[in-house]
Amino acid sequence: MEFVVCFPHKINSMILLNGSHGTVFSTAFQPVLRMPFIGDLVAEFVSFMLNHPYLMDHVRYYVLQPSIKSYLQIYVKIFGSPLLQDMLGKNYLFEFFQQYLDGICDDSVSLHHYFRAFQELHSHSVYHLLDKIHHPTLIISGLWDVLLPCLSSFEMARKLPNAKHCCDVYSSHATILENPESCVYEIVSFIKNMQSRKNKMA
Predict the structure, then answer these.
(1) Is the separation of the CB atoms in 168 and 182 below 8 Å?
(2) How far apart, in whole angstroms, are the C-alpha atoms of residue 142 and residue 17?
(3) What does the alpha-carbon distance between residue 52 and residue 117 come to, in Å, rounded to a whole number?
(4) Cα(169)–Cα(120) distance, integer angstroms
(5) Please, what is the end-to-end C-alpha distance for the chain in angstroms?
(6) DSSP tag of 72
(7) Which of 3, 18, 50, 200 has the most CB atoms in a 10 Å sphere around its CB?
(8) Are 45 and 162 contacting, i.e. CB atoms less than 8 angstroms apart?
(9) Under a CB-based contact definition with an 8 Å cutoff, are residues 137 and 162 in contact?
(10) Taking 90 as the threshold, does the pLDDT of residue 37 lie above it?
């Protein structure tokens, strides 16, 4: 979104899927409302792990590796799309998240980079610039997203002057893969609306 502020004439409209305006620790693991000190605790935990690689490696092997695999098996049963399961196979969502997480539990280097990436996402924010972005924007979020909660999307929609926010109640962090019918419908409707506006202006 910072690109849009810097180069507004390069962009006609935006579609934001399961995104955030930054400072991600402030909403991490808080899907509905912010809890006091949770963001600070998450930030301190990540910093502590990065400063103690030996301990981080033990946490990776003995805690994250077994828990994430078990969590994903439950997750995909809850949020897997029957439509995409028929098209791509029963394990499509599990395979996606295996690639998405990029083996963070397989070696300490991957986990280190993953933690560092979250620090970068937390240290940067465009929230103060959102009211300068007047481009038509479609925001799609998942109600049960704990990584980038819908709370952040509601905040973006409130600040962006020309935004529409669709919070999907049947999805989490990968709405387009978990409830594709609703998500694709909103995207196609938005694109058709943008095309209709363009034709009227021509």
Answers:
(1) yes
(2) 9
(3) 17
(4) 29
(5) 27
(6) H
(7) 18
(8) no
(9) yes
(10) no
Question: How many Å apart are CA 143 and CA 70, to the nearest integer?
Answer: 22
Q: What is the pLDDT of residues 113-156, one digit of tens each?
A: 999 999 998 998 999 999 999 999 999 999 999 989 999 999 99
CA angle, corner 198, sides to 193 and 202, nearest 5?
Answer: 150
State the DSSP H helix or E strand holding residue 138, giving kind and residue range, or none if neither. strand 137-142
Count the residues in the chain: 202
| DSSP designation for 8 | G
Output the six-digit token pair for 49: 């792990």
Q: What is the pTM of this model?
A: 0.90
Q: What is the amino acid identity at position 188?
A: V
Q: Which amino acid is at 74?
A: I
| Burial category of 181 from C-beta neighbours within 10 Å (exposed 0-12, middle 13-18, buried 19 and up) | exposed
Secondary structure (DSSP) of 139-167: EEEETT-SSS-HHHHHHHHHHSTTEEEEE
C-alpha–C-alpha distance, residues 80 and 116, integer Å: 29
Strand partners, 142: 168
103 torsion bin: left (phi>0), alpha (psi -120 to 50), beta (else): left
